[in-house]
Specification:
With about 425 residues, the chain is an alpha/beta fold. Helices cover about 30% and strands about 25% of the residues. Strands 4, 13, 14, 15, 16, 17, 18, 19 and 20 form a 9-stranded mixed sheet that branches. The longest helix is centred in the middle third of the chain and has 19 residues. The relative contact order is 0.16. The protein binds ligand LLP. Ligand LLP binds next to helix 10.
């Protein structure tokens, strides 16, 4: 059961609400439309998978930072994974328990570490200088900071190089040959830092090999967990009381809508369950995409259709400013019309493009679609993760409003950005 589906009348629905009706009722286009229930179901899938384990589901806020969504996720029992002081502030505003928050990143700022130390969130140690800053932050606030060492496991996740993070020349984490240096440093600074666990993150969108073959076994999570548990054994042998294994995020979703069987949270957790139990650990996971991506569409309107040479274009009002993943990573996101085509609509192959002044501005390439009339609704699916949170105001396209379907009603969960929000930056200068 998925929140977005075609009805018998040929219209697209979100949890029983016709997307066409939503379009007609809201103030502007494009806009993001979420299913609150789908978010709940996605969290439940993780909770069910984690039964029998001590665990923290740390939602990666970078994937989507809508405050209403964060409050909902917090209400469902999630913790939060943060990569900046502002994400930490937002997590606190959303009511997340700081003791279920993890502060990550290769370039954490000292002032943000001070806030993290003050609030007693877990901090991942990423480098020598990061450790130094954490020690300084601990001294500033006079509290001992609970830390995890982010170890770079050198496992190839076989994903787009921009989102692979756990290979040996990545900018993230520490290499295992430096482990002893870090353990000694932790011992030296035992009044400032308390080593409580280890962390790794392999990369994002883990579903496929480079050859586009499906990995169905989430083997690489197990490979990484085996390595990490070895590190835990070594570290414990030196007298540290480690409790946490953090295996990061990364589970992919079915962006292609092929109906292929993809790894589920249950598959992922089952590959590491025995290891976690055998060492009496608390498992931390950091999902972003797999919690939020499939809960949302970007809803656009067709501005017009044109042909240049052999290329057909559908021009819509949405663009790379609202949704940059296709332009930035060549990512595929499924595209659909929200209403049934006219009986005589000619089916053709189109590039779906926005109005932004550059050729990178596309949402989809070579999509077979019925030729839409002006004003037809067109959705880009799976737009819940890394879409709104990566939106820009390029070409002065203001950030779109967001709505969710909650119990059959459409509720605004974020205002669209307005011209006065933009001009305010120049007030009084
Ligand atoms: N933990 C760490 C340390 C991470 O770096 C990330 C994502 C996550 C967790 C969450 O990963 P997820 O479960 O969402 O795959 N903008 C790109 C994705 C960048 C991911 C960055 N790190 C995209 O649009 O595909």
């Amino acid at each position: 059961r998925h929140c977005f589906s075609k009805g018998e009348d040929g219209f697209l629905y979100c949890d029983g609400v016709r997307v066409q009706d939503v379009m007609e009722g809201v103030e502007r286009s494009p806009f993001y439309l979420y299913s609150k229930d789908q978010i709940t179901r996605n969290v439940e899938a993780y909770k069910e998978a984690l039964q029998g384990l001590r665990s923290v589901v740390g939602y990666a806020i970078k994937a989507n930072n809508n405050l209403k969504i964060l409050e909902h996720l917090r209400g469902l029992g999630c913790g939060a994974v943060l990569v900046s002081g502002n994400e930490l502030r937002l997590a606190l505003a959303a009511g997340f328990d700081p003791k279920r928050c993890i502060f990550n990143g290769n370039g954490k700022m000292l002032e943000d570490l001070v806030l993290a130390a003050e609030k007693e969130v877990f901090v991942n140690v990423d480098s020598e200088f990061d450790l130094e800053n954490i020690v300084t932050a601990a001294r500033v606030v006079g509290k001992r900071v609970p830390v995890l060492l982010r170890i770079n496991p050198d496992v190839d996740p076989q994903v787009h190089p921009y989102v692979a993070t756990g290979n040996k020349t990545s900018k993230f984490g520490i290499r295992n040959e430096k482990l002893q240096w870090f353990l000694d440093a932790v011992k030296t600074h035992s009044s400032e830092i308390n080593l409580v666990g280890v962390h790794c993150h392999l990369g994002s969108t883990i579903t496929k090999t480079k050859q586009n073959r499906l990995i169905t076994k989430v083997d690489i999570f197990r490979d990484a967990a085996v390595l990490m548990v070895n590190f835990i054994d070594q570290i414990r042998a030196q007298g540290f009381q480690l409790e946490y294994l953090n295996i990061g995020g990364g589970l992919g979703i079915d962006y292609h809508h092929t109906g292929a069987v993809l790894p589920t949270p249950m598959d992922l957790i089952n590959t590491v369950r025995e290891l976690v139990l055998s060492r009496d650990l608390t498992l931390i996971i950091e999902p972003g995409r797999s919690l939020i991506a499939n809960t949302c569409c970007l809803v656009n309107k067709v501005t017009g259709v044109k042909t240049n040479g052999t290329k057909n274009f559908i021009v819509i009002d949405g663009s790379m400013a609202e949704l940059i993943r296709p332009s930035l990573y060549g990512a595929y996101q499924h595209i659909d019309l929200v209403s049934p085509p006219a009986a005589d609509a000619h089916v053709a192959t189109f590039d779906v493009v926005g109005p932004v002044c550059e050729s990178a501005d596309f949402l989809g390439k070579d999509r077979e679609l019925p030729t839409p009339a002006k004003g037809t609704g067109l959705v880009v699916h799976d737009a819940g993760a890394y879409c709104m949170s990566m939106a820009s105001t390029y070409n002065l396209k203001l950030r779109p409003p967001e709505y969710w379907v909650d119990n059959g009603s459409v509720v605004k969960i974020r205002h669209g950005e307005k011209m006065e929000d933009f001009t305010r930056f120049f007030d009084g200068l």
